[in-house]
Write a structure and sequence with these properties.
The chain has 317 residues and is mainly alpha-helical. The chain has two domains: 118 residues; 188 residues, Lysozyme. The protein contains 13 helices and four strands. The protein has a two-stranded antiparallel ribbon. Strands 3-4 form a two-stranded antiparallel sheet.
Length: 317
């Protein structure tokens, strides 16, 4: 009974915000392992938090206060701050904001069904969030492309290669020649083609089932005199993917397709800075994106992610 009275006395003293001695006895009780004071300690922490909010509110009020008012003196502010401190303690002791209860659950672990937030949440893991966002956009894009393949009566997108390794092996000799002309890495060119076609799984085919060999999404402008195919594609409008119809160039072979890619990039004045930076793979694709090669706001980062992938980096011709 004496122990309970002693603990209650300590708690009552600690509830006075201006009684430093009471706070010291509370610290001593915690150090001695007294479980009865956990709730009080949590309420004190919540009181500090409430006091900080009140202090911020008072500062905003002071900025608009009449400097000549007798209620704006230093003496009034002193007693006002003391009142706010005690008010914060009283609020936390009578339910408050619920922060104290969360602290008790986290530290006391008295509820067998309670799980710490660290085991069920990943709010602080920004890379996980970014990765999930990229995967969601990619999945949505793949779904739309598959839908376009089934719904287009003329041209459509379909697989041209069995897997990623077959895709890289087939492109590499042509990419080497293209890279030599551009002054870049052959694997960088393959990475861009992989992003444009989903590793060759979404290559444009005409109505007869013949591949366009267009692996870089090069559209058929009014000046283009060769064959072309109109197909549903994905364009980004303010970062939001939209399905549209567009005409794309059609080639007779992979070699012709890659050669035209080099000519296309080198002949367009807006890509001059990209060509000048072709020796730096990261800079090359960043300049292509800045020049408007693709509407995807994450285009350059996606290409670089594929470029650094094990499939490309471990490939040996």
């Amino acid at each position: 009974m004496d122990t309970l009275n002693h603990t209650n006395s300590q708690l009552e003293m600690a509830r006075n915000a201006n009684d430093i001695g009471g706070l010291n006895t509370l610290r001593q009780a915690i150090a001695e392992g007294d479980g009865e004071v956990l709730q009080e300690a949590a309420q004190q922490f919540e009181a500090i938090f409430v006091q900080m909010m009140l202090k911020s509110m008072r500062k905003a009020q002071d900025a608009l206060a009449d400097q000549d008012s007798p209620f704006n003196s230093q003496q009034v502010k002193f007693y006002r701050d003391m009142h706010d401190q005690q008010l914060a303690v009283d609020l936390s002791s009578n339910g408050g904001m619920g922060l104290a209860d969360l602290i008790v659950k986290q530290l006391g672990q008295q509820d067998p069904n309670y799980r710490p937030a660290s085991t069920i949440r990943s709010d602080g893991n920004l890379s996980s969030i970014n990765r999930a966002t990229v995967e969601a956009v990619t999945q949505a894009q793949d779904t739309m492309l598959q839908s376009a393949s089934k719904g287009s009566p003329s041209a459509y997108k379909a697989a041209m290669f069995d897997d990623q390794q077959a895709f890289v092996a087939a492109l590499y000799p042509h990419a080497e020649r293209a890279a030599a002309e551009l002054g870049t890495d052959a694997k960088a060119i393959i990475a861009q083609a992989a992003v444009e076609t989903g590793w060759g799984q979404y290559v444009i085919h005409n109505s007869q089932g013949q591949s366009s060999h267009n692996l870089f999404g090069i559209k058929a402008s009014p000046q283009w005199t060769g064959s072309q195919a109109v197909v549903d594609t994905i364009e980004f409008n303010n970062g939001v993917p939209e399905r549209r119809k567009a005409a794309f160039r059609q080639y007779t072979s992979l070699e012709e397709g890659l050669a035209d890619y080099v000519n296309f990039v080198r002949s367009q004045p807006r890509y001059a800075q990209a060509v000048a930076a072709s020796g730096d793979t990261q800079q090359y694709f960043s300049e292509l994106q800045q020049a408007g090669y693709a509407t995807d706001p994450d285009y350059a980062s996606k290409v670089m992610s594929v470029y650094r992938s094990d499939t490309l980096q471990r490939f040996e011709p």
